């Protein structure tokens, strides 16, 4: 078997768990030689995005539905609350529509802002969704039609084999992939303690620019956005600011990227990957 096939078998055997897969690699565990039946990309493949290699824990395998060629396109990540206010909804649709003219738009296919972002792009651009379960589970159910649409001409990615059920710990862990795929991250709406803030932390760790919509000081729905702006995130004031996102970037995604898998991360196998807690 080729090393990519061995890695895919490990990932399936381990249920997509990063640390267990890394241990299987390190210990050269025996393989059954069973072919993985669903389409996938591994860290050994040339199509594997260089941006993901920058992660402390880059995904070993990405199981996908749709068009993997979209991974070659410049991308922006747009994230936000699962319980958006009216202002958040309007800004999600506006930002997705404008940014889709120049970028593939990445989000998490969750309830709320994520779903709005993906739907807004379907007719005017391309979008990538990163999910926290296997592809057999279309969560939340309200996005089932959206899943079907995106599987046709867009792209859905998961670290988890198709039959992996929805688990709460998977959602903050998948956020690192959302952050890494985008050249920058746009925060539409966030409270101070939310999964969205975990995505922002991952983006900052990768030296990605973070953009935020401002909120009234008495509006708790956007307190996280206001906090980020106070700490140096770029405030989006108007449509012009949206149109300028990514045009004058201070950090290049291509800087210091390796074209080969960074297998030094096996040294971290004994450490628990960050982000295995919190909520969606």
**Biggest sheet features:** 9 strands, mixed
Class derived from helix and strand content? alpha/beta
Q: Provide mean pLDDT, rounded.
A: 88
Give the strand line-up of the largest sheet.
1-2-6-5-4-3-7-8-9
Question: Span from first to last CA?
Answer: 37 Å
Poorly predicted runs of 5 or more residues: 250-280
Instruction: Please work out how many helical segments DSSP would assign.
Output: 9
Helix content: 25-40%
Q: What percent of residues are in strands?
A: 5-15%
Molecular shape: globular
Please give a handful of descriptors for the protein shown:
nine-stranded mixed β-sheet, Rossmann fold, 32% helix, 280 residues, globular, alpha/beta, disordered C terminus
């Amino acid at each position: 078997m080729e090393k990519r096939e061995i890695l895919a078998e490990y990932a399936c055997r381990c249920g997509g768990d990063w640390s267990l897969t890394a241990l299987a690699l390190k210990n050269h565990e025996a393989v059954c030689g069973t072919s993985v039946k669903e389409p996938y990309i591994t860290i050994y493949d040339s199509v594997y995005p260089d941006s993901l290699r920058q992660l402390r824990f880059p995904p070993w395998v990405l199981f996908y539905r749709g068009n993997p060629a979209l991974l070659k396109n410049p991308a922006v990540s747009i994230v936000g609350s699962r319980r958006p206010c009216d202002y958040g909804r309007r800004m999600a649709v506006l930002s997705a529509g404008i940014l889709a003219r120049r970028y593939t738009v990445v989000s998490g296919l969750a309830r709320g802002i994520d779903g709005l972002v993906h739907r807004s792009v379907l007719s005017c651009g391309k979008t990538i969704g990163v999910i926290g379960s296997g592809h057999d589970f279309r969560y939340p159910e309200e996005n089932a039609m959206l899943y079907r649409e995106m599987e046709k001409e867009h792209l859905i990615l998961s670290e988890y084999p198709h039959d992996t059920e929805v688990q709460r710990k998977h959602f903050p862990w998948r956020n690192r992939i959302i952050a890494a795929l985008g050249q920058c991250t746009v925060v539409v709406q966030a409270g101070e303690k939310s999964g969205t803030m975990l995505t922002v932390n991952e983006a900052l760790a990768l030296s990605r620019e973070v953009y935020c919509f401002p909120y009234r000081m008495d509006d708790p729905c956007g307190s996280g956005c206001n906090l980020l702006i106070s700490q140096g995130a770029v405030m989006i004031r108007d449509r012009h600011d949206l149109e300028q996102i990514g045009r004058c970037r201070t950090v290049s995604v291509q800087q210091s990227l390796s074209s080969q898998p960074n297998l030094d991360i096996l040294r971290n196998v004994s450490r628990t990957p960050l982000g295995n807690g919190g909520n969606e």
